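Lab notes, practical 5.
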Amino acid sequence: MKQVRKKLLFWAPRILCILFALFVSVFAFDVFSPDVPFGRAITGFLVHLIPVYLLIGILILAWRWEWIGVVGTIILSALYIFMTKASEHWLAYLSLIGPMLLIGLLFLFARIAKVNSRLRKDS
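Output from the prediction step:
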């Protein structure tokens, strides 16, 4: 049972982070419309994907060091609130900040489990 829990704690934040990055990237497609030139739309698309680039960067680092996932997702959550000046509808915050904080908590639990398993091996 411990092995299953350990694997779940390892994979859950990583898989959820990938799924959340895909979810957020869908919003970048709003730049494509018939009245926008293709070159300008591509530029806008790449700019709209900046949060996804940051999230994937955090995930790459957190794959090895879980604490980066904890800190990075909290910083991205706070950055979103700061950038929107807390003027969005509460559902926007729930759908964008909620998953990031959940992912951060899962990385925290994975880190704690790793430290605890190392302590048990040493004693």
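Observations recorded by the TA: Residues 90-122 form the longest helix (33 residues). The chain has a mean pLDDT of 90.
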